[in-house]
Amino acid sequence: MDVKIYDKLAKRYDLATKIVSFGIEELWRRMFAKEIKKHIKNGILIDVASATGEMAKALDFDRMYLIEPSAEMVRVIVEKFQKLGFKKEDFEVVFEESPHIRMKKGQKEIIIIQDTAENVKIEEKADLITAFMALRNFDDLEKGMENLKKSLKPGGYFAIVEMVKSDSLFAKLILWYMNKILPLIAGMMLGMKEEYKLLGKSIDTLKEDEIIKNLKGFGIVKKQKLIFPIATLIIAKKDDG
Ligand SMILES: C[S@@+](CC[C@H](N)C(=O)[O-])C[C@H]1O[C@@H](n2cnc3c(N)ncnc32)[C@H](O)[C@@H]1O
């Protein structure tokens, strides 16, 4: 996915998402966080395609890596967590194109890495990886998921919410809204008609089977359609040893 679209959207992303999804995305996020907490309550989290950091904010683990390639989204994350009382520790450029920003608040630490799922390198192993509406943005799903899986402890969880291809009538209606109506609303509200046309197109590209195929070495502990069955929730546990 061309991150320039997300750069342009960053400052208005939270509000725009609430409006264009009629609050449904927020509902999905809450259901997702609640389901995750049944399996794991705290530890080391890697949240991929973090956008403005809402998933990390909702889960509030003690140590969180936020992986996000858009520089403008990273800026929004930093401002959001500053408002939540986090202080920027340092700014180190570890790899030429992958800046790490570390922020702390008491015992809590977040590390924001400006990079893609396919390229990011994380030394530490996490207890949980979250990908909320993230996977369809990867340029190479297999490479991105393989790379992330390396940074998960045995017994750790890979938790996913994604919009997937569906043949239901309702899904077709949503697609029509995303492709025809949403760009018009986004055009009027944000001056971003063409960008939302592109985002709408990406909705219909990913099949649930493709996601499952890339979870080799994992056991599926939860799989369900969320309300409005165009989104699927998957929680998978990495095999021990
Ligand atoms: C729909 S948003 C994700 C929403 C977010 N997870 C949340 O909780 O609100 C998609 C994000 O994916 C990011 N992205 C695009 N290409 C990516 C890649 N190859 N790897 C990781 N993130 C990517 C975009 O910059 C954008 O911020």
Can you tell me about this structure?
With 241 residues, the chain is of the alpha/beta class. Helices cover 41% and strands 28% of the residues. It contains nine helices and nine strands. The chain has helices at 3-9, 13-20, 24-39, 54-59, 71-83, 141-149, 169-190, 193-203, 208-213, and strands at residues 44-48, 63-67, 87-95, 98-105, 108-113, 126-132, 152-163, 218-225, 231-238. The chain has a nine-stranded mixed sheet, with helices on one face. Strand 4 and strand 5 (108-113) form a beta hairpin. The longest helix is centred in the last third of the chain and has 22 residues, at 169-190. It is globular and about 45 Å long. The mean pLDDT is 91. The structure holds S-adenosylmethionine. The site of S-adenosylmethionine has 23 residues, from helix 1 and helix 4. S-adenosylmethionine binds next to helix 1 and helix 4.
The largest β sheet comes out as: 9 strands, mixed
Number of strands: 9
Shape assignment? globular
Task: Specify the structural class.
Answer: alpha/beta
Q: SSE order in H/E notation?
A: HHHEHEHEEEEHEHHHEE
Distance between the termini: 34 Å
Biggest sheet: strands side by side, in what order?
A: 3-4-5-2-1-6-7-9-8
* Beta-strand proportion: 25-35%
Rg of Cα set: 17 Å
The multimeric state of the shown protein is single chain
**CATH secondary-structure class:** Alpha Beta
Spell out which ligands are present.
S-adenosylmethionine
Tally of individual helices: 9
Q: Could you please say which CATH topology applies here?
A: Rossmann fold
CATH superfamily: Vaccinia Virus protein VP39
